[in-house]
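Lecture notes, continued. The same structure-token format from the folding unit now serves as the input rather than the output. Read the line below as a description of shape only.
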């Protein structure tokens, strides 16, 4: 099975690479645009059976715990829209895009084949943004509009590219912090990365050597 492991930064998957230094992997850089470019370029060079994105993220919902690893079942672009009269409106509500035109389902990018690859990890919803902030007006707007569990800066790019190209994919997130918390002393980044890589290694080994 041809598997590609994708991460925004190398340190997020360092334990995996230490165990499997020859594994096919792609470090895209941070943000959805750069991630989408590098991922699209790679998949047109090599045909993959599965793409796994692994990274840390923040949580909105108390249903997720710090250092927990979750599986994103659906994601969406959370900051593509228009601000008008002090109100933010996304492209779908503005009528500038069809919320149900493939690969979107009511504005979400849904991994419909997720159950083929999962273990017992909690399945969550996510939004992807290109700006992290501690501004609570902005954070509350995101939370109230989308009711997502977690936030990242690259997840929706993975979903969009893989859905468009009909490539099976998984998005794993280790929860490092609460969204909006910029005090790093309150983060559990290293523990999130350790747990994330344990799950990543298990998923890859299971796919390569199914029982």
């Amino acid at each position: 099975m041809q598997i590609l492991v994708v991460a925004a930064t190398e340190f997020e998957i360092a334990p995996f690479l230490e165990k499997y230094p020859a594994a096919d992997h792609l470090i895209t850089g941070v943000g959805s645009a750069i991630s989408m470019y590098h991922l699209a370029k790679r998949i047109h060079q090599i045909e993959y059976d599965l793409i796994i994105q692994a990274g840390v993220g923040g949580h909105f919902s108390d249903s997720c715990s710090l250092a927990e690893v979750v599986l994103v079942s659906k994601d969406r672009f959370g900051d593509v829209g228009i601000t008008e009269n002090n109100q933010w409106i996304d492209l779908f509500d503005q009528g500038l895009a069809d919320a149900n035109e493939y690969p979107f389902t009511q504005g979400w990018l849904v991994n419909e084949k997720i159950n083929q690859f999962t273990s017992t990890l909690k399945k969550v919803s996510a939004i992807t943004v290109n700006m992290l902030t501690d501004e609570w007006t902005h954070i509350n707007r995101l939370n109230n509009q989308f009711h997502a569990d977690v936030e990242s800066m690259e997840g929706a790019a993975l979903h969009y590219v893989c859905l468009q190209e009909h490539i099976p994919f998984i998005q794993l997130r280790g929860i490092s912090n609460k969204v909006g918390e910029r005090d790093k002393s309150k983060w559990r980044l290293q523990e999130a990365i350790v747990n994330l890589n344990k799950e990543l290694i298990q998923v890859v080994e299971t796919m390569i050597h199914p029982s």
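Point for the exam: The helical segments are 14-19, 32-43, 91-94, 136-146, 155-165, 189-208.
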